[in-house]
Design brief:
242 residues
């Protein structure tokens, strides 16, 4: 079984793979030496444990690791956190998926990062964490147009009209759709912690609800095993975009 970090939420899909992981709640602090990239709502992939990990973590919205015990993570405050793993535990990744990232293909980038680094063809498991839900997340026409460039045939399923030229968007649902479209089996997609960050009281941080006063939720995942050099990784706890 995985170790349970205090204050973090775990998903049965990753527990079954014996993957150490956690979705943060307000005030949750990640384990020591967790590595975070500097997120920019893009497609870049950073591999932690590679030579560049000895310098400042670069801008990236996918972080991946093949190093046993090396904890990697992302931060969110309404965007969708996705923790990915090869079911044999050989590669893990964390993906920061806001609407811009979804439109650009960040989930596809995360899945490629796992598959190109796995030692063999292997199934993937994914857990989706707390994010802005359809109940509260309203977007305008330009956002819909941006998403339609990638999801033209399916986007209508995740939109509910709210007022003229505005819609409620099921951001986590669209993320799950992207996972399914890219070969992750439904039975291996965990949704136990897919909770709306905006309307869940103050259990979670929310940029949409609190604006510049919002903090960030920290999420992490690690390949099974113990790191041979825990001092080679570190926490970068600076605030980045939600």
């Amino acid at each position: 079984m995985t170790d349970r970090a205090p204050g973090f939420l775990c998903d049965p899909v990753l527990i079954d793979c014996e993957i150490d992981h956690g979705f943060g709640q307000r005030g949750s602090q990640p384990p020591d030496f967790t590595v975070f990239p500097r997120q920019v709502h893009g497609l870049e992939v950073f591999e932690s444990g590679s030579p560049e990990a000895d310098s400042e973590p670069p801008e990236a919205d996918v972080i991946v690791s093949r190093v046993a015990g090396n904890r990697i993570g992302i931060v969110t405050a309404d965007c969708v956190p996705i923790l990915l793993a090869a079911v044999d535990g050989s590669v893990v990744a964390a993906v920061h998926a806001g609407w811009r990232g979804l439109a650009a293909g960040v989930i596809e980038a995360g899945i490629r990062a796992i598959r190109t680094r796995a030692t063999k063809t292997v199934a993937l498991a994914a857990a989706v964490g707390p994010a802005a839900g359809r109940c509260c997340y309203e977007v305008d026409q330009p956002v819909c147009e941006g998403l339609a460039l990638r999801y033209a045939e399916s986007l209508h399923r995740f939109l509910t009209a709210s007022r003229p030229n505005h819609f409620h968007l099921d951001l986590p649902g669209l993320a799950v759709h992207a996972l399914l479209e890219n070969g992750v089996e439904r039975r291996r997609i965990g949704l136990q912690n897919c909770i709306c960050t905006i309307c869940s009281g103050f259990r979670f941080e929310s940029y949409r609800r609190d604006g510049s006063m919002a903090g960030r939720l920290k999420h992490f995942i690690a390949r099974p095993g113990k790191s041979n050099d825990p001092g080679s990784t570190r926490v970068d706890s600076r605030k980045t975009g939600p």
